[in-house]
Amino acid sequence: MLKSIDPALNADVLYALRAMGHGDDVVLADMNFPADAIARETTLGRLLRMENIDSGRAARAVLSVLPLDSFVKKPAERMEVVGKPKEILPVHKEVQKEIDAAEGRPSPMGSIERFAFYERAKKAYCVIQTGELRGYGCFVFKKGVIIAPAG
Amino acid sequence: MLKSIDPALNADVLYALRAMGHGDDVVLADMNFPADAIARETTLGRLLRMENIDSGRAARAVLSVLPLDSFVKKPAERMEVVGKPKEILPVHKEVQKEIDAAEGRPSPMGSIERFAFYERAKKAYCVIQTGELRGYGCFVFKKGVIIAPAG
Fold it and tell me: Global pTM?
């Protein structure tokens, strides 16, 4: 374990989040997502895991170190429920709460249709499969920047 | 996910438990154990993980599919507290409870001194690092057999 680092961020996940740059996407996928197949098409090329925790807990850990991109309107997006794109499930609310807490203000997620989400995920830097057992626990976060104060 | 399989048993762990044979050892290690270094000396040669769950939860998942060896007196053993080999910590009690439940009867664990445990672990089939944050959450289980009834 490491000082001040959430133990849910394993060595592989921490490596990937650190290696990502401005505008790179990280996908948080649920347990039924075709995560291995899609991860092989990403930049990292292999699947990462944060097992046995739900989407909200995983988002909290990731957002404890990852800045969201302030250059775009919706740096966080969710997969839409098939046939009900506007339906907000508890898993979406839980992750929204973590995003708002990390940003220090309401920062509503965007949404992406299921198959469009797959295509977007293939272009991500990496895919992290969480232990989320509920459906539609699939999210994409765009990495932002941490700029040193002018000296 | 798979029918009737505990979701805490990820694909890599399930592969290893299935591949093990009679008398092979699997180590469940806590978060501070030198798991990566020791796992590289095991038969499998690489570390497995069951993250974000404690020793008891991980033992329950493993023992839901892994038979313990009935050919030896103590098929399950724990790492001893340094300087206090007989001290039983809550993490030990929690795993003992899972062993007893899986066996359907009291089946007290044996114990191994810390450095002897490291040597024993190097000879295991594999090491699984759990999300156990407490100390001394280190165990070794010896695989038993499942014999078809005489036809």
Answer: 0.90
